[in-house]
Amino acid sequence: MGMSDFCRRKRSGVQARTGGAPMSLMVREQAFAAVPQEVVVDRLRPLLSPRELEVAQLALSGLPTAEVARRLFVTVNTVKTHIRHILRKTGTESRAELVRRLLMEEELAAGKRDPVTGFLPRTAFRRRALDLMRKHRGQGVSLIWLEAQGRQRLSVVERVAADLAVAEALSEAVRAPDLAFRWSEDQFLGLLPATDREVARTVTMRLGLWLGEWASVSGCDLLFSLACSSSLEGLTSPEALMEAAVRRSGEVLEDIA
């Protein structure tokens, strides 16, 4: 799938977002009720005030705004204000988007593949990296660190398009479906077996150029920060590999700018 495919997907996504009938109350309640209340509390408690957390629990359960207001003994406008604050603090544009994010984070924490990119979750990284480091002890294992800076500013459609671009580019770079990982919403990892840092650096630079060109063509306001590290540098654990790459994050973009 090339860059033109991403553009087509983006256009179709915009059409889907702006067209069609509003989501029915029944469908909306089914979608929102899919988020367990303990997930809402665990994920959002660090971000929200106690009152906002109460509103989030009710609003994300599928209740209409008027019913949330009735249960909390406040006005509808007060609930709407709380919801605006919740969306702003979580970097989302709607309750539906917030639900999707919570479900994705829960799936990643549970060890499931990311539904958009198909990448493995962060929980699978350490074991996979250790296996490769043992197998390729003499040849080395390299790590690519990729961060999509500014992703939170994008619309829902643009975020999906950016994720798909990263999925294509990083999958092509590592050439195996079980060597790419989604570390967080904005951060991704790739493992390169039997490579030293110079080879990894070349791959990383090509990856950065491709993503930079994609961002320019698609019009997405994104900066991709990339770096790499290798076990042949004396890095003997997956954690050391990642820490070294994160410290260097951004140097590849500076080199190719």
TrEMBL record:
<keyword id="KW-0805">Transcription regulation</keyword>
<dbReference type="GO" id="GO:0003677">
    <property type="term" value="F:DNA binding"/>
</dbReference>
<dbReference type="Pfam" id="PF00196">
    <property type="entry name" value="GerE"/>
</dbReference>
<keyword id="KW-0804">Transcription</keyword>
<dbReference type="InterPro" id="IPR000792">
    <property type="entry name" value="Tscrpt_reg_LuxR_C"/>
</dbReference>
<dbReference type="InterPro" id="IPR016032">
    <property type="entry name" value="Sig_transdc_resp-reg_C-effctor"/>
</dbReference>
<dbReference type="InterPro" id="IPR036388">
    <property type="entry name" value="WH-like_DNA-bd_sf"/>
</dbReference>
<protein>
    <submittedName>
        <fullName>Transcriptional regulator</fullName>
    </submittedName>
</protein>
<dbReference type="InterPro" id="IPR029787">
    <property type="entry name" value="Nucleotide_cyclase"/>
</dbReference>
<feature type="domain" description="HTH luxR-type">
    <location>
        <begin position="41"/>
        <end position="106"/>
    </location>
</feature>
<dbReference type="GO" id="GO:0006355">
    <property type="term" value="P:regulation of DNA-templated transcription"/>
</dbReference>
<keyword id="KW-0238">DNA-binding</keyword>
<dbReference type="InterPro" id="IPR043128">
    <property type="entry name" value="Rev_trsase/Diguanyl_cyclase"/>
</dbReference>
